[in-house]
Amino acid sequence: MANPKKMTEQQIAEVAELLENAELNAQDVVKVTDKYPDMSFSEALDVQWAIRARKEARGTRIVGMKMGLTSWAKMAQMGVDKPCYGFLADYFSVPQGGEIKMEELIHPKVEAEIAFMMDKELSGPGCHVGDVLAATDFIVPAVEIIDSRYENFKFDLPSVIADNSSSCRFVIGGRPLPVDSIDMRTTGVVMEKNGAVVELGAGAAVLGNPAASVAMLVNMLAERGEVLPAGSFVMTGGITAAVAVEAGDSIVVRYQHLGDVTMKFV
Amino acid sequence: MDKKLITACGDELYEAMVNRKTVAPLTDRYSDITIDDSYHISLRMLDRRVEAGAKIIGKKIGVTSKAVMNMLNVHQPDFGYLTDDMVYASGTEVPISEQLIQPRAEGEIAFILKRDLCGPGVTNADVIRATECVLPCFEIVDSRVHDWKIKIQDTVADNASCGLFVLGDSAVDPRKVDLTTCGMVVEKNGAILSTGAGAAALGSPVNCVAWLANTLGEFGISLKAGEVILSGSLVPLEPVVAGDFMRVDIGGIGSASVRFV
Fold first, then answer.
1. Which of A105, A214, B173, B208 could link A132 by a cystine bridge, Cβ 3.0 to 4.6 Å?
2. Contact B197 A256 (CB under 8 A)
3. Which of residues 121-180 of B touch A (CB under 8 A)?
């Protein structure tokens, strides 16, 4: 169907530049749908892929993908029926136990996730949990630090997709395990902030099974003719609610079977 | 409260349970009621059940989550007694219209003891040594108080709002599972309702059992070999009605299900 207010390539590029600069300068901006209220999901993804291209042109490597809005509660809250995705750039990776500089971020929050390292390329449509499990090298516990580039972390779905689904940092920790060694649905997660338990959950909070999140990602990528390459690292979405952090906070996430992920905000 | 009033309140709650008719909150009627009074009332209620033929088979620990502690404005758990007429096997039907008033389901880990535990001074290691096995469990809590309008004294007096409980069919040695991080998934009528993990109950279900052993130890009461101890909910309570089907899965332990009719 024709969209009379379709964004031009120039406008897509401008929005991409604005949002990438907001990320690089840690400076929040008004949400892009304030200026482009009719921005479609497809245009929002055009912006995200344009940001990705800007980074790649500068020599940044894209190491994987992330899924967002993967709990039914969050989808209902946003009035959508499917999650959103974003990319992970090489410099988003923070070592286990590492320090994350608040000055590089705007208003970060942390979420506990189960992440997948893919051994084989996956393509959709029709990708299912069985394909995902067969194509996975290992799973590993990981914590995502999300940071919306929008004022007060307030956005609608096109805005957050354009903003790379709030992707900004991630920490891989714990112990990698083969997918058939544990039941990801019932794998428990306990998040502690400065020694106190703040959030808990189990893997099923992510679309019933984190592997289902990878399958959904692959099928969403297929809508743009893209695949999930071998060697991709995939963050499947938050098992816990996102927890706001500030300088001085120490986060420890303890996983059943998979070990711990730790980091400090400075 | 004097002994006569404590007996009257215990009798009232016992009758409410048997006749499935709620009563007004005790805290509305007796503004100076203490938690200690409430435990004495719960003992009177228990005596009536034992007189009627019930056998004590264990204890339950309640108010173990931050959310419920905040709701009741307390900083410690409470406990109640489990009797033989309260236990159901996984997969069986629970007749709300015969057994319950305003039930809510919560997923828990049940401990079966193989040694006595006598506080004070019981450590987490003592609890694990004294535990034969842990099982997945639904506790079906119920209140004999109108619309669950409870303060801490009301729920303590009412046997910690215990209704009945459903034990799963797999039992695991507590040495083989991390009870702090084990995950819980609760489904209602086939849809995922909530997830949680062991740490939701006082940081670990083992902490809960140690707390109970140490608290009762002050009164010279021990937890007995063979008793079942419900260690506290790991997820929010969920109201249930006839027709609902609930299932709980606990990582490394197993599952339990219950159908309400």
1. A214
2. yes
3. 178, 180
Residue B49 counted as domain residue: no
Residue type, A14: E
Q: Are A86 and A232 in contact (CB under 8 A)?
A: no
Residue A241 covered by a domain: yes
Give me the helices (H) in chain A, please.
9-25, 41-57, 72-78, 129-135, 157-162, 210-222
Q: How far apart are CA A121 and CA A136, in angstroms?
A: 9
Closest-CA residue of A relative to B198 is: A188
Q: Please report, for the domain that includes residue A240, its CATH number.
A: 3.90.850.10
Which site among B182, B186, B195, B249 would you substitute to test the A interface, given the most A Cβ atoms closer than 10 Å to its Cβ?
B195
- Residue B67 sits at φ, ψ, to 5 deg, of -60, -45
Give the Cα separation of B237 and A48 in Å (integer): 41
ipTM of the predicted structure?
0.89
Please indicate if any CB of chain B lies within 8 Å of the CB of A190.
yes
User: How many CB pairs below 8 A link A and B?
Assistant: 77
- Domain assignment of residue B217, yes or no: yes
Q: Is residue A249 part of a domain?
A: yes
**Least confident stretch, A114-118, A154-158, B83-87, B229-233:** A154-158
Q: Is residue B101 part of a domain?
A: yes
Say what the pLDDT of residue A1 is. Answer: 47
Rounded to two decimals, the pTM is 0.92
Spatial contact of B157 and B26, defined as CB atoms under 8 Å apart: yes
Q: Is residue A1 part of a domain?
A: no
> Quick one: angle between helices B35-51 and B3-19, nearest 10?
60
A201 touches chain B (CB under 8 A): yes
Number of domains, chain A: 1
Domain count, chain B: 1
Residue A251 forms part of a structural domain:
yes
Domain hosting B88: range is: 56-260
Interface contact flag, B195 A202, Cβ < 8 Å: yes
- Judge whether A170 is closer than 8 Å to chain B, CB to CB: no
Residues of the domain holding A57: 9-265
Q: Is A74 on the interface with B (CB under 8 A)?
A: no
User: Considering only CB atoms, which chain B residues are within 8 Å of A203?
Assistant: 183, 195
The CA distances from residue A140 to A182, A257, B176, in Å, are 11, 10, 21
DSSP codes joined into one string, A173-195: -S--B-GGGS-TTT-EEEEEETT
- Return the CATH number at B214: 3.90.850.10
What b/e sequence results for B175-212 when a residue is b if at least 16 CB atoms lie within 10 Å of its CB, and e otherwise? eebbbbbbbbbbbeeeebbbbbbbbbbbbbbbbbbbbb
A189–B185 CB contact, under 8 Å: no
Nearest to A88 by CA among A169, A22, A187, A18: A169
H-state helical runs in B52-102: 66-72, 96-99
pLDDT digits (tens, 9 = 90+) for A68-119: 999 877 777 777 778 999 999 999 999 999 999 999 999 999 999 999 999 9
